[in-house]
Amino acid sequence: MLKLNATFDTRKDVVSSILAKEETVRGNIGVLDPRILNVEKDGSVVYSWRGATGTTRIGKYDPQSTENKLLYTFDKQVCVSSCSLNKEETLLAVSLSQTTQEGSRFKPGSKCLTLLIEIHPINNTKVLKAVDCRVKVQFLYPKTCRTTVLESHLLLAAEDGYVDQYHITLTKQEGYRVVMLNPDHLGRDRVAEEFNWVQWDSDTQRLFYLTTREKHTLKCVQFYPDRNYETVFELPLEMPSITSVTSVRFVNFGYDHYEEKKVEEGLRLEVFTDPIGTMCVCYSHPVCWNKGATYTIAFVHRGCSKTFTVSLEKGAAPANEPKVHPIFIHLGYYIVVYLANHFLHLINCRQQDLLCYSLFLSGADGPEALGSGSEVVNVSGRRLLDVRAGKMYTMELNHDFLFELLSLERPEAQRLAALHCLLVYMQPNPVIDLKIINWISENVMSFDAFDQIQEFILASLYRISYQQCVSLDKVLPYSCVFEKKELPVALTAIPGVKCTPELLCQPLIKGKGKSLHGYWEELHHVLDRMRYFEAVPGLRFRTTLIKDEWRRLQTAMHNSEKKKSPRYNRHIEENTKKVLSMVDTWRLDRRVVPLFQEEDQQQRALVGLMVDKLREHLNRHLPRLGKKKIDLLVVNYAAKLLELVWHLLELVWQKLELGPWVLCLKQQGCSEEWAMFHVMFRILEATKGLCFPLPPGYSTLLSVLGVRCLPRHTFLQYVDHGLLQLTEPFVSRLMTDLDNSDANEKLKFSILKRLPECMKQKVSQQWDHPITSAWISREYVKMLLEKYPENRESISLDNGKMCFHPEFLPLNYLAKILSDREEQAENPFEEQENVDVRFVEETALKQTLIKLGFEVK
After folding, report:
1. What is the rounded distance in angstroms from the CA atom of residue 168 to the CA atom of residue 186?
2. Which residue among 67, 180, 190, 385 is least enclosed by CB atoms within 10 Å?
3. What's the pLDDT band for 285 if we cut at 50, 70, 90?
4. What is the C-alpha to C-alpha distance for residues 240 and 850, in angstroms, rounded to an integer?
5. In a domain, 707, yes or no
6. Considering the domain boundaries, does residue 77 fall inside one?
7. Once rounded to an integer, what is the mean pLDDT over residues 482-506?
8. Distance of alpha carbon 806 from alpha carbon 194, whole angstroms
9. Residue 488, by phi and psi: left (phi above 0), alpha (psi -120 to 50) or beta?
10. What is the mean pLDDT of the chain?
11. Rounded CA separation 482/486 (Å)
12. 14 within 8 A of 24, measured Cβ to Cβ
């Protein structure tokens, strides 16, 4: 499920390279006990090792250049419990634990010495603290465009429950020496106090801490590049005691290899944020092997928390198994909750409506690659540190394993979660897209709990739109499940997992308007939207809401009645023109599926209607986006929908190796064409269920495949039940491609009987058949005699204008009347192409000969 990519290995990147060579040159046995101490914001790794001569050294690994640099050497063995390097690599802050050694086991001493060391070049050393508690050090890494900054800021967090910030002013001497300007009088601010848990977020330069003066309150201090800082966030939390001992929990302040591992009776707590304005507070209880594992995730941006209780397999843990916690790993869209050898959960941070959008794995599916929870910790940049192995990893989801979860043997909730993860979380990838479409084509029958084609369309559109504007998160549909009247039981309950939701207190974000910027501005907007969304029902756009309007519009089109005003019809058509102009046409000539090549009035009307209703919905709920941006978003949404359907068809078409011969109606379809017809028919059903439009030409192609693949009577039944639509291009191809054999003649007559009058008049002219010729003649005579006023003047048959056979005097008289009517008309062929008096004469003559029993050549 989880794919780990190693980014740093002390043995490979340190010991086996520069440091190992250095020790070999000195004739010593090499590098001993290399340990990672800290990972700074820029990705550089600060580490220590013991030399064979009794020294302790501190070095830095640069991931960009893959080079190692020696920072400082202690002339004796010391226990480095915390270490940090400033951005300019001129200062080194180190906390040393005074320990006693008994055999191979270290115990913490009663003293902690914190030093500030000049290293460019190595010069003075200043003692910052000498106390009887642990001390953590961390330099700030402010964003600045200056290459040389002569001021550094250091955070010093003490186990006594306070955090100080030191302001260190530097100066240059002799052009290259960087030293402290006034080491005896460093500026100092008290940043936080009276807490029992503290977390440093290196990437965003934030300090979270938990106070317990009256009740648990989570606070956040934001540090800025101009040496200012402020407490910007407060959140009351209803939670049990953070710990049963007096020591403070430090998170993301490097790793202390000399801290004695106590049996943790309290909670493990971590806070995760994302630039788009999400915040999750995660905490877990120690695992009780008899009762199961419990953890809680507070979704601050959603105003709720969920406590998950997970049943563990009996006998899975030894009798003397030490108390452990599940660990939390932030992936942005998901939070991984992991308990070694027992379970791995992928909790969706943004879609919390149902559990089926999170992934719950246990037993044989639970991974073993991360080791135990006490050995793996989070570091900056969403990386993992394996303390025992001395390695760092970046983590990604294994899409191959996600595809395994799509198999029919898996529970439907698991399949839905895996599909949603592949469609929404994973970045666009042609290989993944092809695999998903292959899976859809091989499992075209709808599942009991969800429609996989509808899920593919909605989730893909949600991902595309959400990347353009995060505000669309709550107003656009992302799954087909919510279109069902009743939610399936298979999607509402997860075996072995109990979820208890609760409401959160409203957080306090200090500062409004211009004083908020960056992440805090986004979180403020997210919370505002969340309060609005809670108060307004029916916030998420439901595509089925336009069904009634679409039926009325269809009726008006079918009956040629304008149920809406001409202005409304023009408005719908303008929407459609905007959408089709945005559809990707740059490779239209290379497309193997013949779409976007004809006018389909029904689909054009549905495109325009969907754009109109979606625009209306967004203007109502997201007015702050502005009408121009909303118009662009909804037009792009409809355009991407049409492109998505085309893309799906293209990949299936190429997979089945179909070609242009498919468009010929003279041959019977093969098994590949039947498979294509089945996929296209399922897409038609799925889009009808969502009331989504299809690309122009879709109905024509589907009908062509239907004629080639279905028995004739079955095809006509599909038409009668409205499953197939008879389009003018399809019927025209049918009339011209098929000969006049008995079976084809019967099919053509059956099709003509089912056509509306307006289409019948156009299509019948393309079929060279005596009956259609007679029908055209009758319709033409009727049109001329009804459209133009009757002329009661006598008609002379010998005026020489036209020459007719004298033995057919009634026909001559009729032809003379029609000829005179044509002369009176301004444009007699305006509506009836390829019809004139000569055609009527020839048709009438053939009909007369047929009735008299003569052979017609």
Report:
1. 6
2. 190
3. confident
4. 99
5. yes
6. no
7. 85
8. 119
9. beta
10. 81
11. 8
12. no
Res. 808: pLDDT tops 50: no
**Same domain as 414, residue 465:** yes
What is the number of structural domains in the chain? 3
Token duo for residue 218 = 């989570």
What's the CA gap between 172 and 183, in Å, rounded? 14
C-alpha 338/C-alpha 325 separation (Å) is 9
Place of tokens 């193997």: 592
Task: Please write down the HEC assignment for all residues of 604-615.
Answer: HHHHHHHHHHHH
Q: Is the pLDDT assigned to residue 394 strictly greater than 60?
A: yes
Give the span between the Cα atoms of 604 and 598, in whole angstroms.
11
Q: Which residue has the higher pLDDT, 856 or 707?
A: 707
Looking at 666, 691, 725, which one is the last position of a domain? 725
With beta carbons less than 8 A apart as the criterion, state whether 835 and 780 touch.
yes
Highest mean pLDDT, choosing among 232-236, 274-278, 832-836 = 232-236
Predicted confidence at residue 245, as pLDDT, reads: 44
SS3 152: strand
Given a cut of 60, whether residue 809 has pLDDT beyond it is no
Does pLDDT of 815 surpass 70? no
Strands (DSSP E) found in 478-597: 497-503, 508-509
SS3 (DSSP) at 587: coil
Residue 35 lies in a domain: no
Name the domain boundary from 671, 700, 725. 725
pTM over 0.85: no
What amino acid occupies position 296? T
How far are the Cα atoms of 1, 313, 371, 372 from residue 316, in angstroms, in the given order?
21, 5, 16, 14
Counting beta carbons within 10 angstroms of the beta carbon of residue 489, is it exposed (0 to 12), middle (13 to 18) or buried (19 or more)? exposed
- The span from the CA of 857 to the CA of 851, in Å, is 14
Question: How far apart are the C-alpha atoms of 482 and 487, rounded to whole Å?
Answer: 8
Of the candidates 571, 536, 539, the residue with the CA atom closest to the CA atom of residue 553? 571
Half-sphere exposure of 295 (CA within 13 A, CB side): 28
Print the domain residue range for 496.
403-504+528-535
Coil vs helix vs strand at 42: coil
Q: SS3 of 693, please?
A: coil
706 with 815, same domain? no
Q: Which token pair is 822?
A: 């044509």
Share of the chain above pLDDT 90, in %: 34
Same domain, 548 and 690: yes
Instruction: With beta carbons less than 8 A apart as the criterion, state whether 297 and 273 touch.
Output: no
Decide if pLDDT at 350 tops 50. yes
Please name the residues in contact with 35: beta carbons below 8 A apart, sequence gap of 6 or more.
10, 47, 48, 49, 80, 255, 257, 390
Is beta strand 383-386 parallel, antiparallel or unpaired with respect to 278-284?
Answer: unpaired
In angstroms, the CA 496 to CA 360 distance is 9
Provide φ and ψ at 578, rounded to 5°. -65, -40
Are residues 675 and 619 part of one domain?
Answer: yes
Lowest mean pLDDT among 97-106, 411-420, 610-619: 97-106
- Nearest in space to 681 (alpha carbons), one of 663, 703, 697: 703
Q: Which of 484-493, 531-540, 763-772 shows the lowest mean pLDDT across its residues?
A: 763-772
Maximum alpha-carbon separation in the chain: 136
d(CA 170, CA 150): 5
Q: What single-letter DSSP state applies at residue 512?
A: -
* Strand, helix or coil for residue 34: strand
Does 716 map to a domain? yes
Same domain, 700 and 790: no
Whether the Cβ atoms of residue 339 and residue 294 lie closer than 8 Å to each other: no
pLDDT tens-digit readout, 113-168: 999 999 988 878 999 999 888 899 999 998 876 656 688 999 999 998 999 999 99
Check: CB of residue 202 under 8 Å from CB of residue 41.
yes
* 581 and 655 in a common domain: yes
Same domain (yes/no): 683, 796: no
User: For residue 60, what are the β-bridge partners?
Assistant: 46, 69
Strand order in the sheet with 2-9: 2-9, 391-397, 383-386, 376-379
